[in-house]
């Protein structure tokens, strides 16, 4: 692709680094920004810079947050006896959009994948175990829902976590298989995802 300006070329190259955006889409976005008032691009730039510099990750569940503890973990309206374990942050947003779940979350930051060199130590599994074992009697965690991808890596991670949770005496369930094999929660429609949470089944590592 030939560009009339090195500045346009640099902008297109940077924008196209974003997931799902090719060079043509990046060019349209760059040209669109040029047509906007300077205050619009300045506001966009400031928002992105502020996001990168000031965003935090919840010390409890590892979700994105404006403070050390996210609004879900600190809410008194949530059922603190249930923790839904997910792979990544977009999965939390997807489940929240179903309005079918009122418990807490735990973001692993990935799934076990030996091919990619990702083992249990690279994930937030130990913090999940500590979190459950240290939960107060009045808010003792009674159930862990495994809402992980329906893939070999997701199943391997679910199996590993279930074996670790056995000695803690916590009920382990998994979302119903309304989610297609190989499917990601982030892209599953809200009705299907909501029903999968409500019709979750017990998970066994035996």
UniProtKB/TrEMBL annotation:
Gene3D superfamilies in the cross-refs: 3.30.60.80, 3.40.1360.10, 6.10.250.240, RecR Domain 1
Keywords: DNA damage, DNA recombination, DNA repair, Metal-binding, Zinc, Zinc-finger
Any single Pfam family the record assigns to this protein: RecR_HhH
Transmembrane feature ranges: none
Residues covered by the Toprim domain: 81-180
Entry-linked InterPro entries: DNA_Rcmb_RecR, Rcmb_RecR, Rcmb_RecR_Znf, TOPRIM_dom, TOPRIM_RecR
ZnF region ranges: C4-type: 58-73
Domain of life: Bacteria
The keyword Zinc belongs to this UniProt entry's keyword annotation: yes
NCBIfam families tied to this protein: recR (TIGR00615)
Family: Belongs to the RecR family.
Function: May play a role in DNA repair. It seems to be involved in an RecBC-independent recombinational process of DNA repair. It may act with RecF and RecO.
Entry protein name: Recombination protein RecR
